[in-house]
Design a protein that fits this description.
The protein is α+β, with helices and mostly antiparallel strands and 114 residues long. It has three helices and five strands; from the N terminus they run αααβββββ. A five-stranded antiparallel beta sheet has the order 4-3-2-1-5, covered by helices on one side.
């Protein structure tokens, strides 16, 4: 037994030839690949699409007076909203203009102490 036999099994190295000497089914791994694709769809792709839809809805209903958190962690109250930007008041007299896509979540009323 050589070191290579430990890494690659001799039966695997023979290819598609089975024990009887006939050619085995080349589609044998296809069901496994299909199951893996379906599993990845339901575990990764679908939840991401759901989160993207919720975020789009959040930005569409954003209005003056909402308290939000940006992607950078800045908490503020929305002073004005236009098509692609929102103006946040993050402290008394401190106003910051951010892209709407940069808003991460809406906080409950009274969360900010401005």
């Amino acid at each position: 037994m050589s070191l290579l036999d430990l890494i690659i099994a001799p039966t695997f190295a023979e290819g598609l030839v089975s024990i009887e000497g006939s050619v085995s089914d080349p589609w044998g791994g296809l069901p496994f690949l299909l199951v893996m694709f379906v599993l990845m769809y339901f575990l990764l792709i679908r939840p991401q699409q759901k989160r993207a839809k919720e975020h789009k809805t959040l930005l569409a209903v954003l209005k003056t007076g909402d308290e939000v958190v940006t992607n950078g962690g800045v908490i503020g109250k929305v002073v004005s909203v236009d098509e692609s930007f929102a103006t946040l008041e993050i402290a008394d007299g401190v106003v910051v203009k951010v892209q709407k896509q940069g808003i991460n979540q809406k906080m409950p009323k009274g969360s900010t102490k401005i």
